[in-house]
Automatic annotation (TrEMBL):
Pathway of action: Cofactor biosynthesis; tetrahydrofolate biosynthesis; 2-amino-4-hydroxy-6-hydroxymethyl-7,8-dihydropteridine diphosphate from 7,8-dihydroneopterin triphosphate: step 4/4; Cofactor biosynthesis; tetrahydrofolate biosynthesis; 2-amino-4-hydroxy-6-hydroxymethyl-7,8-dihydropteridine diphosphate from 7,8-dihydroneopterin triphosphate: step 3/4
Domain 7,8-dihydro-6-hydroxymethylpterin-pyrophosphokinase: 338-349
The protein's Enzyme Commission number: 4.1.2.25, 2.7.6.3
Skewed-composition ranges (Pro residues): 558-578
Role played: Catalyzes the conversion of 7,8-dihydroneopterin to 6-hydroxymethyl-7,8-dihydropterin.
SMART domains, per the entry: FolB
Protein name: Bifunctional folate synthesis protein
PROSITE patterns membership: HPPK
């Protein structure tokens, strides 16, 4: 059938049609968290197939169907209880329209012109036809307009209409009412013989999953398409769902920032990449180059090594936070001082397009937009990335104006598989590390891990993920959740994504498997500042003496498809890692040539930096006040004698590692000629309690 094509009536002739086009409302339907939170426009076209001759004869509205009432009902469904799928929305509209006995059949088209589709498109819509025989499979939604009618009433009316000579109208009227309307997907005649409430044809009957109701994992059990036995007014109220607890039905993109400046930082970061990739529900799809960066804020401390991971995840934002905090903990993270030195820091920079603030989690990360140590590696691995939220914008643009950009010492591409550097033992006293001169260079897009490097280490079970570059939503680079992982076959995933497998079932670890969820949200968080645990990499190239291996999980030592079940191994707290930093002071040998000079990554979106309205505070401060404009990079006072953006200094390089960044402004923080490492412009506010945010 085509949309609105005539339907043959009981007398063998085409029925008349009432056509209603373009009823629109903001609805919260969709599988992605932001669709649920923000809502978008939905539009519906509806064609009612009925016989209008009686109305025409009597000229009486009561003898037909009021299109105004139908329009109201359609609007209410569009704006009502969120569903995952437009299919469900269309089905609900069909049900509410067919609740009118005069209507023999209905065609429904639901448009979703703002659907999250990554290529240019005009509209996407679903078209369905439902009638008395091929009836809607959802309960009739409670809407403001029509009185809900029982299925018996509907069926009785139909039979009376179709076969008045049988006198069934009276019989139908004599039937008991079974409560709110439920329309069965079987013939109307069959309905009259059974109590409609006894065998409802709600989503359960057809498998809720098939309709996506449970797939999103957000609707409480029974709320999806169960017959609406509650009061209609209440039934239509969508349950409140904190978007931070909403697990997406399909993997969404997220960005994680890693940093470390205690212990063998490169080894830690490497292992952290592997650990994160092994978490059920997280897949690392891309890994940035490694950046050595001057510490920003906090006390005098060694340089950091920083990297950014692009991941796909099916975890809710909070579960993702718990997971990465667990990995921090595995690596001996101790929170003593805000912005203090740490063995490992993992921040969620961005989670899909979610923008939200709560006590425990803010998305996007509130300081990401002003941190070159995040933006520079991110821009290298995802040149077209855009940071959302306040102060957000094209990452590559934010990177070249970030206040700490001059503190980016160098970038290394092969850090996942290349030799780790422990020659640059620096500053065990917390003093700044000697740094390579900061120059202007570029990092050419190249795989994070050389294919030869990968194949040269096939047997290494700890080999970190070596994903293909270019995570993006475009199809060619896209994520194929069901397909085989196309990278690092030599690095088997130790954890099967089967729902029954928990991440770290033992209680202190904080994650107890609970049904299909990998993480028990209510479980205590694993972080325990009073019992720091040193992380001991299972495979380490570090020359630093390590504490005995204390595995958290038994990890298969060779590829074993399918992945074996995870076995939790009890482990006791072990002494903290030595507080020495092995952040290499000089660029280590690299197998990648990094061309000079620096050019902003190709394919940048056209973007003009907004006028620089921000005036730096008189006191050195790393905090840049949030500015309400989206896509406005944090303003930087231009260095007095140089144009730092977009023209960078002379090409210069001295070895295979790149020294990244524009020439250091003479006084990037407007305070003195100090190098930012020494200046430590990120000063916590007075009275800062380091435990305050670390619940
Ligand atoms: N996007 C986010 N990513 C990670 N943690 C966050 C985020 N938003 C809020 N938090 C909260 O911040 C708390 C402190 O995190 P953490 O100790 O990593 O801070 P930090 O790294 O010292 O400082 P910063 O937040 O400036 O990077 C965490 O316990 C977490 O609850
Ligand atoms: N260079 C650098 N500086 C920092 C970093 C970091 O990862 N790198 N992390 C901080 C708090 O998250 C504070 N300062």
């Amino acid at each position: 059938m085509t949309f609105a094509e005539a339907v043959t009536g009981p007398h063998g002739r085409p029925l008349d049609r009432i056509c209603l086009e373009g009823v629109s409302a903001t609805g919260h339907h969709g599988v992605l968290p932001h669709e649920r939170v923000e809502g978008q426009v939905f539009r519906a076209d509806v064609v009612l197939h009925l016989d209008t001759r009686a109305a025409a004869t009597s000229d009486d509205l009561a003898a037909t169907v009021s299109y105004a009432d139908v329009a109201q009902d359609v609007h209410d469904v569009l704006a009502g209880s969120p569903a995952d799928l437009v299919e469900t929305v269309a089905e609900r509209i069909a049900a509410v329209v067919l609740d009118r006995p005069a209507v023999h059949a209905v065609d429904v088209r639901v448009h979703k012109p703002q659907a999250p589709i990554e290529v240019p498109f005009d509209d996407v819509s679903i078209v369905i036809r439902r009638d008395r025989e091929h009836a809607p499979v959802v309960a009739t939604p409670a809407v403001s307009g029509a009185e809900p009618r029982t299925a018996s009433e509907v069926a009785g009316d139909q039979r009376a209409e179709a076969s008045p000579s049988l006198g069934l109208a009276g019989a139908a009227a004599a039937e008991p009412s079974y409560g709110p309307a439920v329309v069965a997907p079987t013939m109307a005649d069959a309905l009259a013989d059974e109590p409609v409430g006894a065998e409802p044809f709600g989503a359960e009957s057809f498998g809720a999953e098939a309709f996506g109701a449970e797939a999103f994992g957000t609707e409480p059990a029974g709320a999806a398409e169960a017959p609406e036995t509650a009061e209609p007014a209440e039934a239509d109220v969508a349950p409140y769902l904190d978007p931070l607890d909403a697990a997406p039905a399909r993997p969404i993109g997220a960005v994680l920032a890693l940093g470390a400046n205690l212990g063998d930082a490169q080894v830690t970061l490497r292992d952290a990449v592997t650990d994160i990739d092994r978490v059920p529900g997280i897949q690392v799809t891309d890994v940035s180059p490694l950046a050595r960066t001057a510490a920003v804020g906090g006390p005098d401390q060694p340089d950091f090594l920083n990297a950014v991971l692009i991941v796909k995840t099916t975890l809710s934002p909070r579960d993702l936070l718990r997971a990465v905090q667990q990995v921090e903990e595995l690596h001996g993270r101790v929170r003593e001082e805000r912005w203090g030195p740490r063995t490992l820091d993992v921040d969620i920079v961005q989670y899909d397009t979610l923008t939200t603030t709560s006590d425990d989690l803010e998305l996007p990360h509130p300081r990401a937009h002003e941190r070159a140590f995040v933006l520079v590696p991110w821009a290298e691995v995802a040149p077209d990335a855009v940071l959302g939220g306040l102060g957000g914008g094209p990452v590559s643009q934010l990177a070249v104006t970030a206040p700490d950009r001059a503190g980016i010492r160098w970038l290394a591409l092969d850090w996942l598989t290349g030799p780790t550097q422990s020659t640059g033992q620096v500053a065990t006293d917390g003093g700044p590390a000697p740094s390579a001169p900061v120059q202007s260079v570029s990092v050419e897009r190249a795989p994070a891990v050389a294919p030869d490097a990968r194949s040269s280490e096939p047997e290494t079970p700890q080999a970190p993920p070596t994903p293909p570059h270019g995570y993006a939503s475009e199809a060619p680079q896209g994520y194929a959740p069901e397909g085989p992982r196309d990278y690092a076959p030599e690095a088997p995933r130790a954890y099967s994504p089967q729902p029954s497998q928990g991440y770290a079932p033992e209680a202190p670890q904080g994650y107890a498997p609970e049904g299909p969820r990998d993480y028990a949200p209510e479980a205590p968080q694993g972080y325990a500042p009073e019992t720091p645990r040193a992380y001991v990499p299972e495979v380490s190239t570090s020359s630093t003496p390590q504490a005995p291996l204390v595995p958290i999980f038994e990890v298969p030592s060779a590829p074993q498809p399918p992945a074996p079940p995870v076995t939790a191994t009890p482990h006791a707290p072990v002494p903290p890692a030595p507080s020495t930093s092995q952040v290499p002071a000089e660029p280590p040998a690299s197998s990648y040539e990094l061309p000079l000079p620096y050019d902003p990554p190709a394919q940048q979106p056209a973007y003009e930096p907004a006028p620089q309205a921000y005036q730096p505070p008189a006191e050195p401060s790393y905090e840049v006040p949030d500015q309400p404009q989206a896509y406005q990079p944090p303003a930087m006072p231009a260095p007095p004698e140089q144009q730092v953006y977009p023209a960078f200094g002379e090409p210069a390089r001295d070895d295979a590692y790149a020294v990244w960044g524009p020439p250091a402004p003479a006084d990037p923080f407007g305070t003195s000629a100090q190098h930012p490492t020494a200046a430590h412009p990120e000063v916590p506010e007075a009275g800062y309690d380091p435990t305050e945010r670390d619940r």
